[in-house]
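Consider this today:
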Amino acid sequence: MSFPLPFSLAAPAPAAPPHTGGLLLLIDGTPGLLTVAALGMALLLFLIIKVRLQPFVALLAVSIAVGLLAGLSVTELFGTVQRSDAVSTVESGMGGILGHVAIIIGLGTMLGAILEVSGGAEVLAARLLALFGERRAPLAMGLTGLLFGIPVFFDVGIFVLAPLVYAAAKRSGKSVLLYCLPLLAGLSMTHAFLPPHPGPVAAAGLLHVQLGWVVLMGIVCGLPAVLAAWAYAAWAGKRIFVPVPQDMAEAAEEAKRAVAAEQRAQGVTPRETPVPLATVLTIIGTPLLLILAATFSSIALDPSPTRSVLEFFGNPFVALTLALLLAYYLLGIRRGWSRKSLEAVSTASLKPVGNILLVVGAGGIFGAVLKAGGVAQALSDTFHGVGLPVIVLAYLIALVLRVAQGSATVAIVTTAGIVAPLLAEGRHSQAFAALVIMAISAGSIFASHVNDGGFWMVAKYFGISERDTLRSWTVLESVLSLAGFAVAAVAGVFVS
């Protein structure tokens, strides 16, 4: 059964029919198209791993190559100046996904920046540490990562919260791993499973899934996964001793002073009183609750003014805009910030987003080319013949891509393009499609190792040797991945 929902992240599919003839005699029918798919994936991995080509450029190049080999004409791929009505697969693929994803990622990024600069993370961690006490400080750090990780990127969360880990480890004299691993588990879970982070938002757009269902299934799958990761973190933190990295602790304090000086130069003069915890939680929770309310109203309520109001405020664009305006006022203007300072912080936060959006857009092109050229249908037919459930296939494809080339975003957008026709054919519900996204997200974080930038960020910030990072962080990510997938797979048995 499929639930009609009010807001869609669906990217319009190109109108071009599938092709079975190609540029080469080899490319004919399903075997030839499967050959194209295999060659395309091999080329993608080669360009990223060996050539060290930027993932956006690699995805774009592979998309064009796959389209030509699958039989798409130059006009179908790029359109033409002479025929204004010609459908460009490249433009429709990229524009269709970014028209929705860019807005959500942009709003979420600015929201996270305001929470970061205002000191919301420090308040959250301090209150939780006071609440749980020194003995349960690892749990407090884990909850801090879980809550603060909702609106901020993984690397930003590490940068902001690492000094708190140093302080807790220094006071207790215990291993840094005991405090950083729960924090990293919380940050990683939200980054992989929950909007407005790029991975789940991009997958929602590529698989035509309502964002409310992604939020709901992200909570259902993510919470058990992070509990399993916390259990491993407690075990590893007691068995692998890593001292506090003095150089990084000093660098963090210096960076904190530099940020404060930059804020003063921009005219940011916040009050000395800390941000109220309730304010931080309200701003973080507002968009999630509004989106979930809209999702449930579309199922439980008949058309009515009340349902219309809930659907309006629960639109992801509206919900995130309201949360951002709340943050501007409660954390900024009411605490002494000038409008110029708010603009400066928001603008600066968007600079790192460009690369993410380009990779997501290239993933949209890849998916559109697979569909227009008939490659996606050939893959769909083959996967149906294998007999594995689509959730298992989605997880395994994302896992292989992740381990091979390191980028979670590339793994997500590539896998989503491959499995999209499987969902379209099966007439699955939005709930089941959201669980497939959870499987893809879980696969995209498996076994972070030396080809992943996150591996080196964790090792650097917390002073962990490469060997101990493999024993701790890599295993932690694998536990998080396997547990999240297990919940998604079990839930998928009951949801179709």
Q: What stands out?
A: The radius of gyration is 23 Å. The chain has 22 helices and no strands. The mean pLDDT is 85.
